[in-house]
Amino acid sequence: MRLVLFDLDNTLVDRAEGFRRWAWEFCAEHRLTPDDAAWLASADHDGLAPRDDFFKAVRDRFALRETPAELLESYRERHPALIPAAPGVLTGLPRLRAAGWRMGVVTNGDAAQQLTTLLRTGVAGLVDGWAISEHEGVGKPDRRLFEIAAERCEAPLRDGWMVGDGEATDIAGGRAAGLRTVWVDRGRVWSGDEKAPDHVVADAAGAIELLLE
């Protein structure tokens, strides 16, 4: 039985595009400018900026009436609805299943938001299980989150694969869990801070084609 675990944000789904859509909506609602949308994207740091800090900075920069907590609540309700599945994922995952693969998602983040993303993009119905860091109380690169995802997929980690765009979380974490690794580079160059992945692809669709070879 072959197992592949996928990261969610910017791997199976285009979180960056979803954030861009949210930023444009936010700017339209608050009568802000395109330059302000660009600032939001920069301050977001590709989703790595702590949400509490991010929305405090947003409130201060634009002198908004809402509290950071209110802005965060609104964001968590709206952002997942704007995130599309990455190109080729909704057609590629069924091909992996037909080829005998067990598939799981292993992701860090807010449990409710990540689950909503899984459901609204259609990814949830195409995989065998998932593990979300907030819900499980442990996050990548900790081996335990990979183990939980594998258990949900009813497949052993041994000889499995990890596909993701994070060097430390997905690639180093996956390797430490005993998985072979595929890095989704998204146009970036490997930094060299971690041992190189087994394979490099441009996107999740490329990873799926690699696994089907």
From TrEMBL:
Gene Ontology MF annotations: hydrolase activity
| Pfam hit, one | Hydrolase
Organism domain of life:
Bacteria
Q: Which cofactor does it need?
A: Mg(2+)
Mitochondrion as a keyword? no
Q: Name one GO biological process term.
A: small molecule metabolic process
The coiled-coil segments of this chain are none
Q: Which UniProt keywords apply?
A: Hydrolase, Magnesium
- For this protein, the Enzyme Commission number is 3.1.3.-
Q: Which InterPro entries match?
A: HAD-like_hydrolase (IPR051400), HAD-like_sf (IPR036412), HAD-SF_hydro_IA (IPR006439), HAD_sf (IPR023214)
Q: Which PANTHER family match?
A: N-ACYLNEURAMINATE-9-PHOSPHATASE
Please identify the protein, giving its name as recorded.
HAD family hydrolase
Q: Which organism is it from?
A: Amycolatopsis carbonis
Biological classification of the source = Bacteria, Bacillati, Actinomycetota, Actinomycetes, Pseudonocardiales
